[in-house]
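Let's practice the habit of predicting before peeking. Look at the sequence and jot down your guess about where helices and strands might fall. Then scroll down.
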Amino acid sequence: MGLVYHANYLVWLEVARTDLIRNHGITYAELERQGYGLAVAELTVRYKTAARYDDDIIVNVTLTEARSRSLRFEYEVIRAADNVVLATAYTALVSIDPKSGRPAALPAPIQALLGKVRAT
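Done guessing? Here is the structure:
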């Protein structure tokens, strides 16, 4: 059909989200080494028009909410050639202790770092 499979958008969102956090000084791997994980608790995607194979895609991501145990990211998936918005989305993530799987507050330095991500 020449259209990008809808689940690929989820991968693009994850890459954009991890890049945003990494570009501000911490990686998911470092969070895990410190004993924390970020689990997707909610995801909504609104598809507006299809991406086609070989389209160059831009994903704009913004951290819109940073709490001690949860984060919310909002996204725009855009076709680079004509700046058409292909989809909008948001994800809500919960900070967890990977050993127990229970919610866990992020340490203050990480919360401060994420606060700076949100401010940019």
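How did you do? The helical segments are 8-23, 28-33, 108-119.
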